[in-house]
Amino acid sequence: HSSTRPFVCASCGKSFSCSLMFITHWHVHTGKKPFACTDCSKRFRHGSSFLQHHPVHPGQRPHICWDCG
């Protein structure tokens, strides 16, 4: 792991080694929530939060069987 953190947030000064982590952090300041649930109107800043939310809808199965679909 490198200690170099070239991506610095101009709003709060937090720094990141990875541009993707910086962009994800920037959504905190902009209010942008790019991940939208197609079953309800809820939106998320992080893809991981969206993936955790999606199985909450009744009648949906969170996993796909590779044998039978």
Automatic annotation (TrEMBL):
Residue intervals passing through the bilayer: none
Database matches in PROSITE patterns: ZINC_FINGER_C2H2_1 (PS00028), ZINC_FINGER_C2H2_2 (PS50157)
Record-level GO cellular component terms: nucleus
Stretches assigned to the C2H2-type domain: 7-34, 35-62
Compartments, as annotated in UniProt: Nucleus
Molecular-function annotations in GO: DNA-binding transcription factor activity, RNA polymerase II-specific; RNA polymerase II cis-regulatory region sequence-specific DNA binding; zinc ion binding
Chief location bin: nucleus
Keyword Nucleus on entry: yes
Keywords of this entry: Metal-binding, Nucleus, Repeat, Transcription, Transcription regulation, Zinc, Zinc-finger
Annotated SUPFAM superfamilies: beta-beta-alpha zinc fingers
Keyword Endoplasmic reticulum: no
Annotated protein name in UniProt: ZN256 protein
Protein's organism: Todus mexicanus
